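We now fix the convention by which a protein and its fold are recorded. The integers have meaning only within a learned vocabulary of local backbone shapes. The record below shows the convention in full.
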Amino acid sequence: MRRLLAALRFLTCAPVPRAWTGGEAALGSSLPAFPVVGLLAGGVLAACTYGLQRVLPPLPVAALVVAGLVAVSGALHLEGVADTADGFLSARSRDLALEIMRDSRAGAMAVIAVVLLIVVKVALVTAVPSAHLWRIVLLTPLAGRSALVVNMAVLPYARPDGLASVFSASLEGLARRGLTLAWAVAVFLASAWLLSGWAGITGGVVALLLCLAFAAVCWRRIGGYTGDTLGAACELAELALVATAAVWA
């Protein structure tokens, strides 16, 4: 339970007291709880979406859904998109790119990336059939939190220290990495199948493939993952799932 609470506090803006989480030790071993937190967040957002659809037209519903996806993590992952865009698109060396990503100030690339991401997400959510939207909203946070686990399982940590370094010790050894990766993928794809059948499975596979492709980019660009690239991976997986749902319709 402490691991779940630690993951809930880390991944969402839920007011979980620090005393309930067990500190960094529990957080470092909480990766298997990440998909569960995604399901919990998705359930709350799906219920809100179902209610909003009763009183609002599609476009305002889509805008509020995207706002909810941002708010549930306190915009933590959207900040990762901004920092990753600044660093990766800077045409600088690995070390300079990491320094740029550590800088809290947002550059032009960060602003462009965040604006485009939000606009495209709203457009895609609007394109999802209303009868199926709550299912996609439920799966979207799960896709993002599973992407975090996938990236950490397939990549080394790119910094000597940092926010995400607490998870490195829990992923030592190929067997542990493999089990953690398999658990996240299994929970994600099983949930996608139960909620949306082949459409869900297709969206899940597309999201995972994009996540792995982005992991390859991170490996080539900075030699691993950082907290910022994890946030970007989360947002990309969510975008891929919603895009697949829109195309499937």
